[in-house]
Amino acid sequence: MSAPPDPVFDAGLQAERTALAWRRTALAMAVAAVGAARLAAPLIGAAAVALGALGLLQALAVSIGAHGRYRATRRSLLDRGDLTAVRPAALPMATMAASGTVVGVLALAFVLGAGG
Q1: Which has more confidence, 6 or 56?
Q2: How large is the greatest C-alpha to C-alpha distance in the chain, in angstroms?
Q3: Best CA proximity match to 18, nearest among 90, 74, 94
Q4: Are 9 and 43 in contact (CB under 8 A)?
């Protein structure tokens, strides 16, 4: 009787799908920041442009952080066969939360300015 075969290891499709999801998230963050800045600019002026630029920088930081995490995940899966060498995704998630706050401030400024 032969030994059972080794379990099939998916060498990266999950990591690639996750990386694509983070790219979509970063793109959505950038679009939301630009859109919110565009809507709020007539009401709060240069502050809207500055907050929009901050939102774009945060989207870029999420994209860079997620790409680095993808490379580390792929390297760990190929070299070690597990994810014990990969750190949690705290930086991209924290940056995403901060970007949501920036877009929320721009939206609040728009709503308050449009009502007054």
Answers
A1: 56
A2: 81
A3: 74
A4: no
Work out the burial of residue 6: count CB atoms within 10 Å of its CB; fewer than 13 is exposed, 13-18 middle, 19 or more buried: exposed
CB atoms within 10 A of CB 22: 21
pTM of the predicted structure, to 2 decimals:
0.71
Q: Which residue has the tokens 């728009």?
A: 110
Paired tokens of 109:
């400024």
Residue-level pLDDT at 5? 61
Q: How far apart are CA 10 and CA 44, in angstroms?
A: 50
Give the pLDDT score at 53: 92
Say if residue 74 is exposed, middle or buried (CB neighbours under 10 Å; 0-12, 13-18, 19+): middle
Q: Are 61 and 90 in contact (CB under 8 A)?
A: no
Buried b (16+ CB within 10 A) or exposed e, 103-115: bebbeebbeeeee
